[in-house]
Amino acid sequence: MLHYRKQFITQISAGRVRFGADARYALADEIAALGCQRALILSTASQSSVAEDIIRLCGAAAAGRFSGAVMHTPVEISERATDYAKKINADILVAVGGGSTIGLSKAIALRTGLPQIVLPVTYAGSEATAILGQTENGIKSTLTSPLVKPEVIIYDINLAATLPLKVAIPSAMNALAHAAEGLYARDNSPLSSLMAVEGLRAFRKALPRVVEDPKDPDARGEALYGAWLCGSVLGQVGMALHHKLCHTLGGSFNLPHAETHSVILPHAIHYNAAAVPEMLTPVSEIFANASPGIALYDFAKKMAAPLALRDLGLQASDLDRAVEIALAKPYWNPRPVERKPLREMLQAAWLGERPGG
Ligand code: NAD
Fold it and tell me: Which end of the chain is more exposed for a tag (fewer CB within 10 A), N or C?
């Protein structure tokens, strides 16, 4: 990975992580350890019964519940939840769910400075970052602030094991995207690359076993371990073409987040492999194909992950506009992002073709 010839700077913020089967039972202790007594529990509407279980685990420290989290963190919902947090005098936020619920928690933390304990059940990785994406008037923007980074992450294998495969598989592809792009990040370090490689390995091993037996606790545990590593990579280094394209497609065409990552990943990695093949060698080795993009495509196909943008509701007529939006704001990428190859790449992703034809 050539790190010894490269200078690097790394700043690792010491977030607290509690990992394991039934780790959620330590929630009341974690709240008390932060000196807090009034927890606001957050979830999506469909996860409100899980939120009720979490309320029971908080015991006397449970002060209220807000089960209105939705994808892309709309500002109006964050403001409503913030008002509620103030009304009940919450002194800590407890989020149970995926990136949408954790996004809501981060948005309230930004507005109030409250500490957060998060219990992730998807593999999206938001829990390990100081990044918040918010949507206002249909436009998604991203900010980075230490205020939004959760103080404690509780990874409970048994809590995450209820995630249906149709959510878990694309979510795993979302996690792989953080690791794969982390390998060639401009600001990567030996540690971020170690985490990326180990995260890729964990999913390569665990995901086929999760698909075969969704209740296998070892496989679920290893996938969650992979999610922590891949999320930590996202929290440490800057991302490039892949994340930019997914942001564009999600924000401007309202495509589902994890599914879009799943489709785009093999194509974006194939595009960049032309410029930095040696940095993507771990992907080739772990997924057993000399071409890292094809390796990821074949893995996604075997896992029955989403492969085509047209299946996610994107129209063929949207592709030109997607290219324009992606080109509008220049951003760093190891290979220059040019109109013609980008358009060809999106066409292949729209059709669900193997990258490179
Ligand atoms: P999500 O949080 O929207 O969850 C997907 C769906 O799965 C939801 O409807 C949820 O209710 C449901 N679900 C969750 N657990 C379930 C369970 N056990 N059983 C049944 N259903 C369950 O999806 P996600 O992919 O985790 O998050 C996507 C959002 O997170 C996007 O808005 C994205 O921008 C954001 N995100 C942010 C970061 C960051 O660092 N800021 C990183 C990754 C993702």
Answer: C
